[in-house]
Amino acid sequence: MQNEIQFLLNEDVVKINNIDPNTTVLKYLRDLKNLRGTKEGCASGDCGACTAVTVEIVKGRLVYRSINTCIMFLYSLHGKQLITVEHLKKNNKLHPVQRSMIDHNGSQCGFCTPGFIMSMFSMFKNREQTSKKNIDRYLTGNLCRCTGYKPINLATKNMYSYGKSDHFYKNEKNILNKLKSINRQNIKIKYFNKEFFIPSNLIDLKENIKQYNNCKFISGGTDIALEVTKRRKDFESIIYLGNNKDLKYIKIVDKNIVIGAATPINDTLNILKKYYPSIAEMYFRFGSLQIRNVATIGGNISNASPIGDSAPALISLDSSLIIEGNKTRTVKLKNFFLSYKKTLLKNNEFIKEIIIPIDKKSIFKCYKISKRFDDDISSVFMAINLKLYNNLINKIAITYGGMAATPKSAPNTEKFLKRKTFSYKNIILAKQYLERDFKPLTDMRASKNYRKIISQNLLEKFYLELTNNKKITVN
Ligand SMILES: Cc1cc2nc3c(=O)[nH]c(=O)nc-3n(C[C@H](O)[C@H](O)[C@H](O)COP(=O)(O)OP(=O)(O)OC[C@H]3O[C@@H](n4cnc5c(N)ncnc54)[C@H](O)[C@@H]3O)c2cc1C
Ligand code: FES
Ligand code: FES
91-165 maps to which CATH number? Predict the structure, then answer.
C-alpha cells in the first residue's frame, strides 16, 4: 500500500500526501501552485472557466479529456497527466489553438478564454474533425458572456490551419514512459483525521471497506464535489473508485450490456449507440463533455436524484444492479429507489455493475426535456420500452423522471395500454391515466401544470414519431 499519489503536472512528476483530501484540483492549481490561468467561475461544473485536460493511457495510447478542475478532487489525479493552459505555449510560440483564437477575435474580457482554449486543445489532441456537431460537443461546457460564440466557433473550425502538430506530439513517448512508471498499487493517504483511499482492484476494495464506519464513495465526483464547493462539507473518509480496474468496463455478456459502475459515461457511448441509440443520444445532452468525461452511470444512479437521467431509461429497459459490500446481491433497478434520495444501498455498500438486457425486438425511446438543450438538468424525462405483436401492445414499460420523489414507472398507464391496439386513439386515452400515476410538484425547473402537460405530450410524441418514422421537434 502506497501513502502518496503521483501524477504529472504538465511534464513534472508530482508526489503528494500532505494536502487535505477534500482539496479540488482547481484550488491546488491556483492557491498552492500559483497556476492562475485556470479560472474559477461557478465552482459547480457549469461554466467551464476552470477547464484543464487530463491524459491517461488507454489501450497503449494517450487519451486527452477535458475536465472541470473545480469539481475534481486532487487525489483522483493519481496516475494521470494534468495539462494546464500555461503549458500550451512552448519556446515563446503559441499553440495552434491559441493562435486561431487570437486571429478570429475569440476573446474580449478573457475570463472564459483559458477554459475554451483547453476544450479546443482536447479536441485538437484527439484529432477530431471540426464539424459543427463536434465543435458543439467539445464547447458546450464553456460559457462566454461577452465575446459571443461565433468567433470562438470559427477559431475552433480553423484551428488546424495553424498546424496539425505541436510540442506534445514530439514528447508523447516520454509522457507514455513517465505515466507507465507510476505505480498502480492501492493508495491510502492519511491527513490528520481524514483519509483518501484509492483501491486498484475489487478484492482490495472489499477487504478494506470493513474498516470504515461510514465512507464516502467517489467515482467521477461531479455530484459529490459540489457538497464541498457549495455546501462547505468536509468528508473524513473518501474511497475513490475511478482508478479501480475491476469497475471500469463495458462489454456484451449473454445478451446483456454489462457496465462497470465507475466507467465514465463517455466511454459507454459507442456500445450504447449500437444497441439503444436513443440512450446514447440522450447522454450526448448529459451535462457537458467535461462532465461526461468523468461522470459515471453508477454515480448517477447512486445519487438517486429524481431528475437523474440514467435511471428512468434503465428502469424501462428492466436493468439490474450488482451491489457489493459484505455480500454480493443483484437487485432490479426498479426496486432500488426507496424515497427521495434514499436507496437500498446499506452502509459501505456500492454498485459494482449495471446490467442492461438487449432485446432487439423491443422499441425503446427516451426524451429529456430541459430549459436549455445542452448542459442542463431535466425538468421531465420519459423512457418507453414497447413490444408490439400484430400491432397489439404486448409489453410496455413507461418510466418518468422529474414527476415524483424518485424515478418512477406509470403502472396505471401501462395497465391501460397493455394488450390494446397501438393506435392514436388509445394513446390519447392513456394520457388521463398518467394523472393517476403522478402528482408532480412545482419547483425551479418547472410548474406542476407544465410537468403534467409535458408528460402527456411526450406519450403522444412517442406515438407520432414511431408511426411517422420521423422526429418531432417543437421550436
Ligand atoms: C454541470 C453539471 C451538469 C450535470 N448534468 C447532468 C445531467 O444532464 N443529467 C444528470 O442526470 N445528471 C447531471 N449532473 C449530475 C452528475 O453529473 C451525475 O449524477 C453523474 O452521473 C454522477 O456521477 P459521478 O460518477 O460523478 O458521481 P459522484 O459524484 O462520484 O457520486 C455521486 C453519488 O453516488 C455515490 N457513488 C458514486 N459511485 C458509486 C458506486 N459505484 N456505488 C455506490 N455509490 C456510489 C457517491 O458517494 C455520491 O453519493 C450534472 C452535474 C453537473 C455538475
Ligand atoms: S468554475 Fe465553472 S465549471 Fe468550474
Ligand atoms: S471573453 Fe469575456 S466571458 Fe468570454
Answer: 1.10.150.120
